[in-house]
Amino acid sequence: MNYGISILFRAIPLLMGAVCLSFGWYVFAGGDDAAHRTAGHVLISLTAICIALFTTAAMIIRQLTHTFAPVWKVVLPLVGYGVAAATAVWGLVLRSGPTNADFVAGHVMFGVGLIAACVTTVAVASSAFTLITKNAAGRPEDGPPDEAYGRAVAVGLVCIPAAAAVVLVVWAGILLADSADAPRYVAGHVMIGLAAICASLISLVATVSRQVRNEFGERERWVWSIWVLVMGSAAIVWGLFVLFGSDRGDRIPPGCILIGLGLICFSIISKVFLLASVWRREFALANRVPLIPVFTCLACLFFAAFLAEAATTDPDFFIPARVLTGLGAVCFTLFSIVSILEAGTSKKS
């Protein structure tokens, strides 16, 4: 990989994190009402996902540029998990605040913290990323290479996003059991979308870890991609159901945000699909796969633009218009990750 390009791909997650942080603070400081407080907190928390994606980018790029040292196996996960834990704890503290805005934002921030932890797990799974191309050039019967981590480690890594998804689904169910209460209704639905992202990351962690261990089989080549597609589609369909299934005013923020979270899942598809497509085969369109998160980014931003205009006459659109802008930044960050994967695995890159 060209050194200048490697710097750019590592800079993109940090730049998008800066966008989320600065925009979140700008929104938070823009007013004392519930909408500014909720949207501001959520936008700031999205910075954690961008930082976690930076750890993944740095972990892979340092291997591709031959500047990787064992210390990075410790430093980068510590950064990612540290930011994820801080975000989750901040959310737990905030949810106990005196206002409904704190209750909703706190629950969402906790879920964002879990997603950041799952993304950091992708970085950990990628700590032996260069073995993927080595294994792809070999035979299935060669077995796991000596340099790969053990089966127990691989299973443990997959369990992290699985556990996060279960926690979010269960918590969402508890909240929605009393959906007549508006804050619980909003927080519960958004947490379902966050759970879909964690569930999608199961596929990415499993694909990376199984290819590192030379255990990725032909029968599962497209299974993981289909799983992510189902999660993303479910989030979007659920968002549409929330939007059009009732006439309650508080349906607009969770419904719109669920659609944005579904687009995040579709961005994750690009990585899972790319790794499956180039495993022991050539894929002529590999260098086009990074366009997927670009399209989802644009979809989030255009959707946010329409919602921002709608917010001038209906304040219920204020929060999703701001949050979807942050989700667009996350999608663009995912563009850098899939571009790195394409550079490191594709024979056509």
Summarize the structure in words:
The protein has helices spanning 3-28, 34-64, 72-94, 100-125, 131-136, 151-176, 182-212, 223-244, 252-277, 291-310, 318-345. It has 349 residues and is an all-alpha fold. The protein has one domain. α1 packs antiparallel against α11 (318-345), α4 runs antiparallel to α6 (151-176) and α8 runs antiparallel to α9. The protein is globular, with a radius of gyration of 20 Å.
Features:
349 residues; mainly alpha; 76% helix; 11 helices; 0% strand
Q: What is the fold's blueprint, element by element?
A:
Blueprint: H1 3-28, H2 34-64, H3 72-94, H4 100-125, H5 131-136, H6 151-176, H7 182-212, H8 223-244, H9 252-277, H10 291-310, H11 318-345
Helix pairs in contact: 1-2, 1-11, 2-3, 2-4, 2-11, 3-4, 4-6, 4-7, 6-7, 7-8, 7-9, 8-9, 9-10, 9-11, 10-11
First-last Cα distance: 10 Å
Q: Count the DSSP helices.
A: 11
Give the uncertain stretches in residue-range form: none
Q: Could you describe the largest sheet, including whether it forms a barrel?
A: none
Order of helices and strands: HHHHHHHHHHH
What is shown here, in short?
Helices cover 76% and strands 0% of the residues.
